[in-house]
């Protein structure tokens, strides 16, 4: 998931942007009992909508590339650092979403962890 969300050189998004097929790629995982669901959202340009077969082909070629590559140390290092940076410099959250998150945390998390929630 980390590499699918990557926006740097050689990433899926950089390839799709270079070909004017998409403006963003976002992947997320949801864990369920017995399986994990990977959802990938690609915001396509008009060119991407006209060339969905090429876009889908590029996506699966990128997945094949990831599967055939050996693990890289820089990926592990980046994955260790990113959560700390996201916690230290969070995106501004919509007030309504912040209240919903805090209310949920109050139901399922210890009092001392209400504000930080699952982020630590």
Task: Describe the protein in words.
The protein is an alpha+beta fold. The chain has a domain at 2-69. The chain is built from six helices and two strands; from the N terminus they run H-H-E-E-H-H-H-H. A two-stranded antiparallel ribbon has the order 1-2. The two termini are 19 Å apart. The model has no long low-confidence stretch (mean pLDDT 84).
Q: Characteristics of this structure?
A:
single chain; 120 residues; alpha+beta; two-stranded antiparallel sheet; 52% helix
Summarize the topology.
Layout: H1 2-5, H2 12-18, E1 22-32, E2 35-44, H3 46-50, H4 52-68, H5 73-88, H6 95-108
Antiparallel strand pairs: 1-2
| Average residue pLDDT | 84
| N-to-C series of helices and strands | HHEEHHHH
Radius of gyration: 18 Å
Number of helices: 6
Number of strands: 2
Largest sheet: 2 strands, antiparallel
Assess the beta-strand content as a share of residues. 15-25%
Shape assignment? globular
Measured between the Cα atoms of the first and last residue, the distance is 19 Å
Summed up:
The chain is of the alpha+beta class. The chain contains six helices and two strands, in the order H-H-E-E-H-H-H-H. The chain is 52% helix and 18% strand.
